[in-house]
Every structure is written in C-alpha cells, then in structure tokens.
Design a protein that fits this description.
Elements (H helix, E strand, L loop, with lengths): L1 H7 L2 H15 L2 H6 L8 H17 L24 H14 L2 H26 L4 H13 L1 H9 L6 H13 L9 H18 L1 H21 L3 H18 L1 H13 L29 H16 L4 H16 L6 H7 L13 H21 L5 H34 L11 E2 L4 H6 L9 H5 E2 L21 H10 L8 E5 L2 E8 L3 E8 L4 E5 L2 E2 L6 E2 L4 E6 L2 E9 L3 H17 L5 E2 L2 E2 L4 H10 L1
Antiparallel strand pairs: 1-2, 3-4, 4-10, 5-9, 6-7, 6-10, 8-9, 11-12
Length: 597
Amino acid sequence: MKNIITKVKSPMFISIGIIFISSVVLQIVQIQNKNLYLGIDWIFHYNRFYDAAQQIREGNLQYFVSMYGFSQSGRIVNALYGPLFAYFNGLLILLFGSWLRYQLVSNFLITFLSSLSMFALLVKSKVRPSISILLSLLYSTLYTVQAWSFNQHFTAWGAVIIPIGIFAATKFLEDGNDNERKNMLMLSFVVTLSIQIHVLTTLFLVIILSVFFIIGIIISRNRVKLFGWVVKAALLTTFMTANVWYPLLETNIENNLLSPWLNLDMDGTALKLTLFNFPGYITLVVLALFFLQFILIMFVKNNLLIRLSTILSFILFILSTKLFSWNEILNRFPSIAIIQLPSRFLLPAIVLILFSLGLTIETMLTEEKSNKIQQVTLYVSLIFLTFFGFLLHHKTADKQANIWTSDDVYSRNSNTISTTENSNQLRESFRKENSMDTPLEMILKPTSDYVPLKNEHLAKSKDLHPYYEYREAIFNNPLNPKITKSVQNRKLNLEWTLEETEEVLLPVFVYQRTELVLNGEKLEQNDFEVNNIGVLKVHAKEGENILTMSYKNSILFYYMNQFHNYYPLKTLDGAIVVNGTKKEPPHMLQFVCLLGQ
C-alpha cells in the first residue's frame, strides 16, 4: 500500500493525471451540449469505420471491399487507408454504440494520447516535468491536434505519432549509444505505427528522420554500426507493414485506380496569419511559440540537437505558409501534388518547435545563470499561452456546436448530398435509437478515391467527371429503390425484379479480383461491362434477379499477410517458439490472419 501511495504522489503520475483531466475538459462543450462535430471529412471516415464495425459484428470479415459502408458499393478503401486502425475504430463503435459516444471517445483519445506523446518526448529528453506538462497541455489545445475532433481531418492522428518519431530520430545523434537493438525496435515501431494509421503522415515523419539520420552519419564515429541498425529497422518495418503496402501495390498494378484528389493550387491552401480565428490558420499562440524560441536561442547556450530541431521547425513552418511559392514548384514537379495541402507541414513544425523550446528552457534553467525574474517570466508566459490555447479551443468548440444546431447540421460543400433538408430529421438520424447507418444513408458524398477506371487513359482525361459519375451511378441510380442488399458468408447479394429483359447499371464497383455470379452463373470478363469509373453493367432477365459479389484475395497476399504476422515475431527472441514449445500468436495477429484468408 505504501508503494502505491508513493507512486500516486510521484510527479509522473500526477502529470499523467493532469493530462487526463485536461483532455476531458477540452471535450466539455460537446459533453454539455451533446452535439456532434461533423466536419468536411466525417462522411468518408465514418463510412470506413462503420464498414469495419459491421464486419466484426456479423463475422463477415472482408479485408478489401466495403460491403456495409459507402452505400454497400463494394469499393476498396480500408485496405488502402490504414486497415488495422479502421478495425480499431470499428471496435470503438461497437463498444460505445452511438455516433456521439464514439466521437467523444475518439476525440478524447487523440487529445490524451497526443498530449501524453509530447510529454513522453520531453521528459525522455530530460526536460523537467513542470515545463513538459505545460508544453504538452498547450500542444493538445492546438488545431493541428484538434482537427480530428472538429473536422475529422485524419492527418491529425499524426499528432500522436510524430513526437515518438522525433524521439527515435534523436538516437541518430547519440554517438557511442550501445542500445542498438532498443533503438532499432523503437524506430521500426514508430514508422510501422505511422504506416498502419496514415501513410501520408509517414512521408513527413521520414523527412524528419532523414534529416536527423544524415546529420548523425556525418558526426558519428561509428557510421557502419549506425547504418546497420537503421537498415535492420527498415527491414523489420517492411515485414510489419506488408498488410498495407502489398495491397496498395497489388491493386494499383491490377487496376487503373483513380488517385485521391490532387491539389493544383497549393498556394491557395497554404496558411496565413490570423490572431484569433482557426481552424485552417496560424494563430497568435502558434506564432508566439516560434517567436519565443527565436528569442531564447539567441541568448541561451544551445547544442546540436536544439539547433537542428529549431532550424527544421522553422523550415517546415515556412513550407506550410504562403511564404513559400508552392505553385511554382508544382509546375516543375507535378508529383508533389500528392501532399495536397501545404498546411500539413504545420504539425511536424509545431512538434519540433515545442521540443526545441522545451530543451532550450531546460538548458536555461539548468546551465545558465537565470535569475528568479527570468524563471517566473518563462513560467508565466507558458501558463498564459496554455490558457489562451484553451480559450481558442473552446471558442472553436462553440462555433462548431452552433453548426450542429443550425439548419446546416454539418459542414457542407458542393459535393455533399442530403436526402432531406429537414435539419431535425438529420440530427435525429444520429440518435442511438436508430441504426448507425441511418445518417450515412441520409447524408452522402461522392468521394472517388481509388475507384477502378475503365481504362488508363481516363485518368488524364479532362472529360472525366468522377464525382458526377459517382453520384449518378451510386446515389441517383434509378434501380436503387428496387434493389435489396444483404451480406452473407463474406459476399454481397443484390436482389431486384424487372418487368422486362434489359441492360442495367448496378450500384457496385468491379475490380480485377471482384467475382460476380448473376442468377447462379459466374460472370467472366466478357459477360459484363463497366462505366468510366468501374460501376457494373449487366444484362438482367425479366423477373427476379440475384447478383452475388465477392472478392478473391491473391495467394501472394495471403502469404504476405502470414509473413507480416509471423516473421517479425520469430526474429524477436523466438516469440513463436519458446523453449521448444510452439506458442499461438496474439489475438490481434490471429484476427489479421483471418482477414487475409
């Protein structure tokens, strides 16, 4: 009992408790109003997670195609967009049973975990807990973290990952570090986690890791050893992420997938300065962090780690703003359009500036002869910025809550479709008494990412309007009122009745490995057609028709999944075979194996 009391009184335990309470406080507006925040991307991600939840609920596990979400259209999304994290969110949906509860929990998780991640980075880097906790709380209030809560921007989950990644990156600079295996596992873990959650976040993480690695190679006295454990980490990561990169590779080779939205006006989506309003802009709090670090580094003794982190943070900050001429670079290198939004550079910039600021303050308080006035000024400044961050957060929370109670209900754009304009009905559709797919059927958005184009030339055609074709073929399909859909034995069934024999456009997508059975007869490639975006056309008979759709996983995918599940474990001290006895893999790995079958 005495040991327990001692642990409870420890600074670490108290700090984690403060982070927990703070994370709850940041959700207080939503808790009180019982409103949902429905931003630009909620339709896309909630369809993904609902599909995963229903697969688990009904036992119809299908790794590739969506048979429940996305209007039961059989399109591939989750397999290419963080599959395991989608199933994690699906589990949360099943556990909490309503969209409001799920959103409260997921918003709390990203707030708590991002703050905890930043706190761990700072404390592990020997920044005192009092400074670490203030910077961590401030971090959790910023829009770069809360973009998931308010607008369901998936890149915000990088706020949990990038601090861990930076801590792994600092190991490149530790010459003579004997913890080779530990460093390898940490580096592999953070990159694997990033790939499993959001592939684009990995791009920014790799940029940071590469800069630290290059500097580490230059200053290291044992370059071969450093290079060796980094290569081992890369190989381990490759095995651990085979369930992500192999489906992405296979489906792109076998199909003419339509790329996600490419931003051809990146200058227009770069950030600009504003004092109080966000989301989407650099606030006074963010600017103050960069200004404070700029001032401190001029007068405080600093080391290579502080200088490198500060310089890199300022470079990434500039890349996120209109100060950088993105469109000129885009004209020369069109492939950078995959970044989509320059504002995404702000998240790693903020993590780095908070990290370097924490290190600089610790240096000042420890090594420099700072007087009491300077120390008090620093603490008051951090407390003020944190408090101001909370105020800005609650201001935005109130603003988003007002959208929920307005006639709009959710953040709309030109591509969003509502089956009713009655705002009360839209709000009622999210109540726990209704099926969780009710709002997904009432509010629609034709996102055409990864749909299979009829031929490769359409990808560059100016005559292709994928959003329009998606809307007409899937949402406004005249056959929709006549079709009944069901899922059995990992197969999607469509049933409908016709008064005469005719060619019909069915609201399902067909990929190279999609298998179709119409009225008991398997359809070969020459037995059907598809429209420009891969939606199925068949000749249906008079009377009752039944189409069964399934997806045949490749044998190579199955073995790659086995490799992903077992090989990394066998390389880590015999996790599969222990003392000559074969052990079963963890339940999550069994789950992934089942998905791959």
